[in-house]
Amino acid sequence: MGVGDVEITSTVTTVNDALYDVNGDGAFDSEDPAWVRANFRSIDTELENPNIVKGNYVVDGAVDEADAVFLESILEKVGPSGIAGDVNSDGVLDCQDSYGALSFFDSQIGQTGYVYALDMNRDGFVDQSDKSAFFILVNQCDFNQDGSVDDGDFVIFTAAYNILDCADPLMPAYCPADLNLDGVVDDADFAIFYVRYNAVTC
Fold first, then answer.
1. How far is the C-alpha of 94 from the C-alpha of 26, rounded, in Å?
2. How far is CA 54 from CA 15, 59, 71, 122, in A?
């Protein structure tokens, strides 16, 4: 089939993103076969190992259409790298994706803390614009991570509400109760929390 790891089972499909990410943007997607097509070249097998030349998946001495077609066949089977926001890669966007997610913001491709699923606009940086888009999609009110938004979470929210300023050293790390991401935990955040608290389920 070519070089690399693809695993397809009845319930789980995974792909070695690092291997197939030929354009180096941190993801395996339709831009990778396009990169191959834009970088056709012959390989001097006397000087290079054709098994490790970037883009040479069909080991035939060239980076060419055959390699682009190979990548597209993998994409057809497994799809592109994950769903934007699906941090735990379970195929569902929910509060579980928010668990610990805040610690990965303010990072970029190439850094240890960079998480592709959080790079909502796919620009190589996980920053404020991604944070806003991410938290619109997931319910991050399950502060104690027990699977429901209940009295335990209300206690945590109230403590943050009484501190108010996210910059206050007493505020929990990454200010998780700042639900509208404006730098303070106030009535606007309580309005968001109240809706999710009444829904109960995470």
1. 23
2. 17, 11, 12, 22
Q: Which helix (H) or strand (E) holds 126?
A: strand 125-126
What is the rounded distance in angstroms from the CA atom of residue 9 to the CA atom of residue 110? 30
Q: How far apart are the first and last CA of the chain?
A: 42
Q: For the chain, what's the residue count?
A: 202
Assign 152 a pLDDT band (cuts: 50, 70, 90).
Answer: very high
pLDDT number for residue 47: 58
Structure tokens at 89: 């890669």
Q: Over range 90-96, report the average pLDDT.
A: 78
Q: Please give the structure tokens belonging to residue 143.
A: 């502060």
pLDDT at residue 128, rounded to an integer:
81
Question: Which residues, 6+ apart, have CB-to-CB distance to 132 below 8 Å?
Answer: 181
| pTM: predicted TM-score of the whole model, two decimal places | 0.54
Q: Give CA 51 to chain center in angstroms.
A: 29
Q: Hey, how many other C-beta atoms are within 10 angstroms of the C-beta on 149?
A: 25
Rounded mean pLDDT, 33-61:
72
Q: Which amino acid is at 7?
A: E
